[in-house]
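Residues determine shape. Next comes a sample protein:
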Amino acid sequence: MKAVVFDGKCLALKYDENYPMPEITNDYDVIVKVEYSGVCGTDLHIIQGEFPASKERPLPLGHEFSGIVHEVGKKSIFKVGQKVVVDPNSACNLCNFCRDGKYQYCLTAGINSTIGIWKDGGWAQYVRCPQDQVYLLPDGITTEQAGLCEPYSCVSHGFDRAAPIPVGTKILVVGAGIIGNLWLTTLHLQGHKDVTVSEMNKTRLDIVKKLETGYRLITPDVLASEKLLYDVIIDCTGI
């Protein structure tokens, strides 16, 4: 199959037309035919050697992806042809972190065994996934939309941690990349009007304008000169 493969030893990407096709090795395995896969800021940090990833062998990155069930293990609840999205993080379900619903902190699973970082990911045509990391999509959600599930889960988690944010709160969002834009759409959905967006990239500001939220858009130099106070500041710069 075709894949974009990352070599962690030399920090190099390579297009491989003959990467090995995944096979069912467990009765609960699900092989997903990838339809949409994102490029996350974390992927860029991995490629630059700034974020830990597998160095045992070259493998496809990509932890934000959706697709169609291609093949399943004998005991899987999924059926070939179903639309699905994948949670790249697993859980051991035994440690205190996992029992508390914080499996991203799990010392044996979580970020330590993430699909697309430590295991073959969505920058390939097919990916083998454990059944408990695969989620069936509702009829009204397309695989294209579902490609944003993983980044939006980060925004949803942040919103839950910051909540409650009363309507009328003066909010500053710094950075208007994909995470910043997802924050803006969430704030708009929740009825927030007093929101300022600071972004240095004009192209990104133009994208925000197309969202038609009515939010105030400024550049960092204007932000620094205004010296205004905000009730809530949301950092989406990724620095």
Notes: The mean pLDDT is 95. The radius of gyration is 20 Å. Residues 106 and 192 are 35 Å apart (CA to CA). The chain is about 25% helix and 25% strand.
